[in-house]
Amino acid sequence: xxxxxxxxxxxxxxxxxxxxxxxxxxxxxxxxxxxxxxxxxxxxxxxxxxxxxxxxxxxxxxxxxxxxxxxxxxxxxxxxxxxxxxxxxxxxxxxxxxxxxxxxxxxxxxxxxxxxxxxxxxxxxxxxxxxxxxxxxxxxxxxxxxxxxxxxxxxxxxxxxxxxxxxxxxxxxxxxxxxxxxxxxxxxxxxxxxxxx
Length: 197
Fold this sequence. Notes:
9 helices
């Protein structure tokens, strides 16, 4: 996650795990299989986390704020080259990610939009299908290293701004008030966390 997939060798992995490369190869036949296992496991954790965000949310806007907080945590030490490496060098692992995005994530986004419309927090005229697909594609923009080169841009900050922009485009006046409320709570929480350090 930190250095990208291609730049990390099986030697690097075995050394960091404190085991021999021979032992590592007892569990994984090659780097592709290891990457597939890591991606599959990470996606499983992310899906559990997404479901947890929904359960913890008071409303659709709140769910977006909880998700945004979790995404910032996950992406804070992630190199955007990871997705590039997956697409270019690890086809099966990339397909696992693509299936997660195209099935699980699109379902979660659709359900959030429908929930927000039902609560009159999101505009009723919004086309749920179009906006769900737009959200998934906009989610990938921060990972485009030709637009946002690592070192110049922070992946977590870009992702946060893209999500914020998306939710502002969905909301009614009632929903906008909740955005302001949750933004204020987020700032207060961040300030309290700094004081605690």
